[in-house]
Amino acid sequence: MSKDPLFEPITIHGLEIRNRIFMPAMHLNMAKNYFVTDRIVAFYDERAKGGAGFITVGFATVDEYSGPPGHIGAHKDEFIKGLSELASAIKRHGARAAVQLNHAGRYNLSVFLNGRQPVAPSPIPSRLTKETPREMTLEEIRTTITSFANAARRVREAGFDAVEILSGTGYLISEFLSPLTNQRQDEYGGSLENRMRFGIEVVQAVRRTVGSDFPILVRVNGNDMMPGGITRQELTEYVGRLIKAGANAINVNVGWHEARVPQIVAEVPRGAYAYLARYFKEIFHVPVISGHRINDPHIARELIGNHLCDMVAMGRALIADPFLPEKAKDGREHEIIHCVGCAQGCFDNLFKMRSVECLCNPRAGYERERVIERVLKPKKVMIIGGGAAGMSAAIASHDRGHSVTIYEKSSRLGGQLLLAGAPPGREEFLQLASDLVEQVSLRGISVILNRTVTEDILKREKPDVVILATGAEPSKLPIPGIDNEKVLHAWEVLGGKRWTGKRVVIIGGGAVGIETALYLAEKGTIDAASLKFLLIHQVKDTELILQMATRGTKDITIVEMLPEIGKDIGLSTRWCLMQDIQMHGVRVVTSAKVIEINAQGVIVETPEGRKVLEADTIVVATGSKPCRDLEEVLKKLEIPYHVVGDALKIGKAFDAIHEGSKVGMAI
Length: 667
Hints:
Helix content is 33%, strand content 17%. By secondary structure, the chain is α/β, with parallel strands linked by helices. The chain folds into 3 domains: 5-339, TIM Barrel, CATH 3.20.20.70; 380-473 and 625-666, NAD(P)-binding Rossmann-like Domain (Rossmann fold); 479-622, FAD/NAD(P)-binding domain (3-Layer(bba) Sandwich), CATH 3.50.50.
């Protein structure tokens, strides 16, 4: 190994790769009727230019019923031309290029199959799609194997350096492997030998088709996270057979899409699943790739340098910052914009049938459209507010060539990102705040803290343009007793400015209310270091220790008017938060209207009648309103201005950063 294991070259079956950074296949929903688009080419061109060593695109379809038309197609020769353009775009910057092939099986939706029923090994309903697939016939199985092989031929003809087979995540090959979804009675079901057969025959057919010299990677689940699914011993035997069948590298994934263990969200610690790659690396003698929540070069180096894996899969990390590899290689890691695991622009967009975007990187997916061009006549731009929207606007304005100053009334930049990063598992938002502050500093943008902008300041500074990014402020709920000294606002609690009593009632079951509940639920629990210490030394009270890892010292209740809580949270993270609420013992009262706050606590009206929820502290986590008091002053002084972020409309961090950037680019 060199001094920097991350940038030591590696060879996979004769294919030399410049570094250990692997960009895994991720669905972007940018293809058009399976054809590669200019948008896809530009997206990957940027990541190759940024220094990634090996880029895999896809997944790509093997037949017209293996995935929706937003996926890249590899099931017809007419797609080769577009694939070739994509391969060239990646390779011209020195990166290696591969295509991942897959059949979605029971994860397909009939709406994308012209009303046809999805196929699978057995007709087991999918909790993800809410549909029941049709059992594949033996003829269909053999045809599908041939389809994988033909698609691999097209990948090679298009000029790619390798092909990857997806054998995990709950898609077709893993459906054959798992006893949960394979209840066949023929040679493709029953025993492990039979359940392995489909995946092995796919790899064998691909090897015969692409020849002996073309690298084949297989992406497998190190753990399906599905109770009653395939065991580690069975998986080990399967991986060994895949290697004998022709696989040259193993890319270790984790979990099915319907598994109930968090896999991609911010609460998953960085590199938490690398132990799965280590297991395979210590058994097999092919390169092993580790992925999931590796968003920082330091973590990546630790995993490679300490022999847990041979390469690191950095997917969303390279969406957030395409130039992460180059920055890491040049010693500029402080300039990296880290993925925060929010899933707002990537996975949540896919659930909305939209193309992938990124909270942290407004240009992701818009590499050609959102090119920042320098202005001929720079202006003096005043940004009022140093939160996410303000900093994003300042960065874009500066890059246009304007003279920019940020005015922030508090003692630090960051705004509500600092509050968003307070709950357990949400610390990555503090990283984003730090990253944006660093970007402001790198550009030499003037920042004035502890300053409230007044009419006099505006008259004195005479800005050509003002961007109002003054955020939001709590609005007072019209509830009798709201002025009780026991009532706090969620922002005070999350900001660490106020203590709460033991019994806490939180009014509002949206994102802020849930995050406040989890923030308080963590109080009094065993921290990670103590938990590791006690488990290593085999302290006998294991059950009590594990209980105290999730049960704190506060008694917390969330009150929500709607029938459900968390309605404003994206699908990718909502289920995790709901699970955490239950795990931490937080009580939830829904369909409840707050009638009054008194000395006892909170009186609520529910379908079952009135209830008194006793409380030492009441936390209000609802009712924010845009704060733009300066708007009338700007109109009076006839200063052109724009309003962004929560000052314009209460929204998410994604909205604030994208709006700020768009406005900054437009000035």
